[in-house]
Specification:
128 residues; alpha+beta; five-stranded antiparallel beta sheet; 2 helices; 20% helix; globular
């Protein structure tokens, strides 16, 4: 099989796209988490991390048998719903352990050129 993201170097940008946590997306996200009657004008940090990972995986599908093991999120400023953000994703780590690749992808969220937060997801990808 292929070496997932093998053509990229550490800290190299993999992709960039715009994100918007709409009221509809937020309501569906909360329902999927079993949360009712929660109202906020701000995006939940996990909504942001989940949506950015979804967009990333559309561009870079992972092989069958891969898993996401961790998601770290750091928010520096309040992020309002229905506001467009820019998301830049870079490869922050790639190492082989036994028969798996451990990949970390870092998302940087910015609004009006100001960085408002980061997230980093860890993927374990089988090498067979």
């Amino acid at each position: 099989q292929m070496n997932y993201l093998g053509n990229y170097k550490i800290n190299q940008e993999l992709c960039e796209f715009n994100l918007n946590i709409s009221n509809g997306y937020s309501n569906n996200y909360l329902k999927s988490c079993g949360i009712d009657n929660y109202e906020s004008e701000f995006a939940n940090p996990t909504e942001l991390a989940t949506l950015s990972l979804k967009y990333f995986l559309k561009k870079f599908p992972i092989p069958v048998g891969s898993i996401q093991t961790a998601q770290e999120i750091s928010i520096k400023e309040k992020i309002f719903k229905n506001k467009e953000l820019k998301c830049s994703i870079t490869l922050s780590q790639s190492k082989e352990i036994k028969n798996s690749l451990f990949i970390k992808v870092r998302s940087e969220y910015s609004s009006d050129e100001n960085i408002v937060g980061f997230s980093e997801g860890t993927l374990i990808i089988p090498k067979n």
